[in-house]
UniProtKB/TrEMBL annotation:
EC number: 7.1.1.-
Intracellular or extracellular location(s): Cell membrane; Membrane
Short name of one Pfam family: NADHdh
Protein name: NADH-quinone oxidoreductase subunit H
Complex and partners: NDH-1 is composed of 14 different subunits. Subunits NuoA, H, J, K, L, M, N constitute the membrane sector of the complex.
Lineage: Bacteria, Bacillati, Bacillota, Bacilli, Bacillales
Regions that span the bilayer: 20-40, 88-111, 123-144, 165-183, 195-215, 252-271, 277-295, 307-333
Membrane topology: Multi-pass membrane protein
Keywords on record: Cell membrane, Membrane, NAD, Quinone, Translocase, Transmembrane, Transmembrane helix, Ubiquinone
Any one GO BP annotation for this protein: aerobic respiration
Chief place of localization: membrane
The keyword NAD is annotated on this UniProt entry: yes
Similarity field: Belongs to the complex I subunit 1 family.
Name of the coding gene: nuoH
Span of the signal peptide: none
């Protein structure tokens, strides 16, 4: 506890505050760039997998297509439905986006973790903040005064609450092995056994993590809150312009953040031979992101009852089994 509150004794002077602001701006600019070309990459990959071309008109190889789409959203009219709850309708997308950016504060991109914090409760911080996004999603669906939006918001609440339990429990095995909630220390603990990252002893936990993460991100086959064939666009059906962009931005920032979290906890973060640590981190995160796109291109959407049943009757019991097995392993390796 003393370690956690040690920052209180350090005065926050003007230079330290300025460094924090500059760091936040740099990370935000970097993430916006990553998200822009993640969307382009997804459209290209899914196009190739489905024997299509994908974006190829705006700029060389279509590289400027996502930028054009962003500019289009920023200049489109911001429409508020006449019977919507105006104040909540306007603020909901912001509530959904802010946590997606804030969770990046504890992700160690390299051994020096520049612009990020080596918090002793990094995992808990991530879980707690990411859970807040559901508030913006539910409020947006309810405030829209649209039945499709409301159903999408309710589906999202049920789905995220259900899958946050196995997601958090799957990470408990890693925390138990590393003996820390600090993401930097979790990576350092994996470096004690070169190239035997936690994905090996925690293979069951990793499988639970990747399934739960897919559901948390509302990605196919768990994209029921959006479900275009049933709900038009789900909870953001009535949104347009830059507020629609906030919801889309939150979704893709979380794809990056969840990929970074999985890389850190199961694949040794920046660890790797020959190449710089930040490059290893980028390669591993890219593989995670590609996996999410691959699943979207190949798997059909499942039913709501199947989704919730699978979480409570399969993933949660398996996560308990994984936790008990990890505790036994930890005891035997003392």
């Amino acid at each position: 506890m003393a370690d956690f509150f040690s920052w209180v004794d350090k005065p926050l002077d003007g230079m330290a505050f300025l460094n924090m602001v500059i760091g936040a701006v740099i990370v935000l600019a970097f993430i916006l760039g990553v998200v822009t070309y993640t969307i382009y990459f997804e459209r290209k990959v899914i196009g190739w997998m489905q024997w299509r071309i994908g974006p190829n008109r705006v700029g060389p190889l279509g590289l400027l297509q996502s930028i054009a789409d962003v500019l289009k959203l920023l200049i489109k009219e911001d429409i508020v439905p006449a019977k919507a709850d105006r104040n909540i309708f306007l603020i909901a997308p912001i509530l959904a986006f802010f946590p997606s950016f804030m969770v990046l504060a504890v992700i160690p991109f390299s051994a020096t973790h520049i612009f990020t914090a080596a918090s002793n409760v990094g995992v808990l911080y991530y879980i707690a903040l990411s859970a807040m996004t559901i508030i913006g999603v539910v409020l947006g669906g309810w405030a829209s005064n649209n039945k499709y939006s409301l159903i999408g918001g309710m589906r999202s609440a049920a789905q995220m609450i259900s899958y946050e339990v196995p997601l958090a429990m799957s990470m408990l095995g890693v925390i138990l092995l590393a003996g820390s909630l600090n993401l930097v220390k979790i990576v350092e603990a994996q470096q004690a056994f070169p190239y035997v990252w936690y994905v090996v002893p925690q293979i069951l936990g990793f499988i639970i993590f990747i399934i739960s993460a897919t559901a948390e991100l509302n990605r196919t086959p768990f994209d029921l809150p959006e479900a275009e064939s049933e709900l038009v666009a789900g909870y953001f059906t009535e949104y347009s312009g830059f507020r629609f962009a906030f919801y889309m931005l939150a979704e893709y920032v979380y794809v990056f953040a969840m990929s970074a979290l999985g890389t850190t906890m199961y694949f040794g973060g920046w660890s790797g031979p020959f190449l710089p640590g930040w490059l290893w981190f980028a390669i591993k995160v890219s593989c995670f992101i590609f996996f999410f796109f691959w699943v979207r291109a190949t798997m059909p959407r499942i039913r709501t009852d199947q989704l919730l049943t699978f979480a409570w009757k399969v993933l949660i019991p398996l996560s308990v089994v994984n936790l008990v097995a990890t505790a036994v392993l930890k005891y035997l390796l003392k």
